[in-house]
Amino acid sequence: MKITRLLDIKKNSPIPDAARLSAENVSLRKKVDELIETIELSGADHAQSQVYQEEIAEAFRRSAFKAKAVAPFQALDQDNNLSREELLEGLEKLLSENKIDSKISSSYIRRNAIQKFVMFILAILLIVFGFAMIIMPAPPSFEIFTVFYFNANDGVTIMDLVSLLIIFGGVLLFVLNFNKK
Questions:
Q1: Which residue ranges run through the membrane (predicted)?
Q2: Residue pLDDT, tens place only, 98-147
Q3: What DSSP letter does each residue of the chain carry, written as one string?
């Protein structure tokens, strides 16, 4: 039978490295492996296998459609040279041409919220580590060079300047994260 031969070929062929390494596809890869094992153990006939193949292909088409549905809206959002009237006309045109529902938009909003949360945590960590590097005493071997002396025992070191750059980077991430349109 063709299906068992195809399954043997797929089983023996190596999985591409891109599919293995992608963090998003790890759970999908596990489920596909489970599905392959289940299909190997079941005794599905030709008609059932055709129905299942069509359902799986339709699921992959729907997942690809979700990503493509939001892309024109992102392109409109990236164009900064448009006036408000042009943006409104472009949005009206996109909404009339593209069918988008609340599931697609909520997944896009959720993905952006997760990205903003991660950037927020990273910015706070950079700020905290920068201040910790300034406040906590460092061994003399780690304080590389003193740029400006306050007195004979204390001054501004290169480590302090690097700490200020780290703090500035954290503040910049924080501001850029919440200063988007």
A1: 117-138, 158-178
A2: 677 677 777 777 888 888 999 999 999 999 999 998 888 877 777 778 78
A3: -HHHHHHHHHHHSPPPHHHHH-STTHHHHHHHHHHHHHHHHS---HHHHHHHHHHHHHHHHHHHHHHHHHHHHHHHHH-TT--HHHHHHHHHHHHHHS---HHHHHHHHHHHHHHHHHHHHHHHHHHHHHHHHHHS---TTT---EEEESSSS-EEEHHHHHHHHHHHHHHHHHHHHH---
